[in-house]
Amino acid sequence: MTSVAPFMIFFVGALLVAFTDGRVRQGVLLAIPVLGAINLLGLGQGAGLQVELMDYRLTLVRVDSLSLLFGILFHLAAFIAILFSLHLRDTLQQVTGVLYAGSALGAVFAGDLITLFIFWELLAITSVFLVLARRTERAFGSAMRYITIQVTSGVILLAGVLVRSFQTGSIEFGFIGLEGLAGWLIFIAIGIKCAFPLLHNWLTDSYAEATPTGTVFLSAFTTKVAVYALARAYPGTELLIYIGAVMTMFPIFYAVIENDLRRVLAYSMINQIGFMVCGIGIGTALALNGAVAHAFNDVIFKGLLFMSMGAVLYRTGKINGSELGGLYKSMPYTTGFCIVGAASISAFPLFAGFVSKSMVMLAALETGHPIVWLALLFASAGVFHHAGIKIPFFAFFSYDSGIRTKEAPLNMLIAMGLAAFICIFNGSYPWVLYSLLPYPVDYEPYTVSHVLTQSQLLFFSALAFCWLKLAGLYPPELPGVNIDAEWSYRKALPAAARWGYAMAVAFRQNVVDRLQRRLERLMREIYRHHGPQGILARTWPTGSMAFWATLLLGAYLILYYL
Amino acid sequence: MAGKRKQHLFDDPLNVKRAIYLLYAICGITLLADFLVRRHIDHPWEGTIGFYAIYGFVACVLLVLIAKQMRKVLMRSDDYYDD
Q1: What are the structural domain ranges in chain B?
Q2: Distances (CA, A) of B28 to A2, A234, B31
Q3: Measuring CA to CA, which of A352, A484, A547, A552 is 20 to 30 A from A10?
Q4: Contact (Cβ atoms closer than 8 angstroms) between residue A28 and residue A36
Q5: Do residue B71 and residue A452 have CB atoms under 8 angstroms apart?
Q6: How large is the ipTM?
């Protein structure tokens, strides 16, 4: 085999990044994904790399169409994210960013569950530094919650893998399905990383607190590794259809009222993952193709949107919709790229989302899930509303906030330009993407009906926004946080812990008090009997002694004669 | 950019109006096309004339109005979690 394991190039590269600086470091950084991509070309389909570890045979590299698609995607995403953060002078972020991308590659090429587990945890450990690197107190708290949840996901995965290996004797990373304890444990572990409803807040929490460049890395890898794992282990699991539908629906309501624009994007990310999860649940060739094609497109257009908001945060130091507005005047290119990203996530004809999201929706209808289809259609209109309109509108247009700043740095612009190009390319000429999909594609996105119906849906959604805005019904951007599932562990759990502690303290006090009172009473009794005035401590006169002895003897005498 | 007092695209209210009228026009055209084109139908519900237009509009209005009500229940001050 002429190629090496894809993650090796990133791990060795990260080491080189740590020991270089300036232009040399920039060169090394850019070379890593390029060399990785060349290496990937050498990895033919069906290639594998196995090592023996104790009793297990680990498959470090397993190449098939599914892993290869995600491999290509992650190289592309790594290149864009590295380019976007090339101006940084921060060894911590640059090294951990590369390690993080490498871990994602390790996970998607893993052929067995133990290798998957190792990279699953590495994903968590390397990426947390991208949040910590913001170096604020809030980011620190967010990072601690992030790592706790991510590592928990890994521990659950390991538990599932061990149970499975014990029961079946196999650690192969293939179809698992929702059967038995092992199946459920692994499902939940993936569900956490996939941001299933109620397990989703680590995403909205950390992506909004990470560094401007860190979020671009974060948005590309963790959740998509989870989508990959679901597609590998749980295709056709009906429960996923409904989980996916819920994921597309509820975040859009939060996104409408959220003020932090990167958190809006985080919510809309859950919405997009919902389409993928739904597609995996449907499990037909069309649906699975749609799910992974949408994962590919989502990494690029969501990355583009996070980049444009990262550029705004980097230049203005602000990210709240209530504080921004009118930035198109000073950041026209960033505005343009953001609009391309917005059009792509909204699935406008000729933009990326149009050619992939519709595959999942058509599959929902074909397999007899019209209600789910209506939910997805609602979510499609909704995503245009908050990600397609709200993000560009409140950041770049709306009321002029008076902020005048500089256009984003050149490296950021090139990275955004590259992502925008891929969005338009995949949207207008989807055949390259389609050729990479796991199943042969028998789907034509550009029919008159599809273009027309999608245009109607989107333009009338825009009309609704316009009308609500002109009628004064649209809720203004307000600073504040909205209570979500995270309330349980950020508010209720600490409150419960504080209450429990207070109760324990009170209980302890109570017990101690009672014991003390008993003891005191006991001491008093002993004192009463044995103390200086106590009855047992009295000195008795000899006379009374003789009197009692005589009395006893007398009584004995009488009893003897009776 | 070059001029300090440069007039930007949407500084002129007329341009905002133009953009809105453009949107009205596009909406009108796509709706009109629904009468002219025989669409491919995968499910009877979507066969109704203007189904997607109405659904998109109603969905967005509902979305915003419900979200607005949610704010009353869910919204807290910015430092709610900092203690």
Answers
A1: 9-39+49-74
A2: 60, 44, 5
A3: A352
A4: no
A5: no
A6: 0.91
Would you call B10 an interface residue with chain A, using a CB distance cutoff of 8 Å? yes
Confidence tier at A111 by pLDDT (50, 70, 90): very high
User: Which residue, A178, A148, A182, is CA-closest to A163?
Assistant: A182
Residue A402 region by backbone torsions, left for phi larger than 0, else alpha for psi between -120 and 50, else beta: left
Residue A92 has pLDDT above 60, yes or no: yes
Cα of first residue to Cα of last residue in chain A, in angstroms, is 119
List phi, psi (to 5°) of A178. Answer: -85, 65
Task: Identify the residue whose tokens are 């609500």.
Answer: A468
pLDDT in tens, A152-185: 999 999 999 999 999 998 899 999 999 899 999 9
Q: Do A257 and B76 touch (CB under 8 A)?
A: no
Instruction: Tell me the residue ranges of DSSP E strands in A24-99.
Output: 48-53, 56-62
Q: Is B66 at the interface with chain A, CB within 8 A? A: yes
How far is residue B8's CA from residue B12's CA, in Å, rounded to a whole number?
Answer: 8
Which of A394, A456, A465 should be substituted to probe chain B, the one whose Cβ sees the most B Cβ atoms within 10 Å?
A456
Please state the pTM of the whole predicted model. 0.90
Q: What is the mean pLDDT of chain A?
A: 93
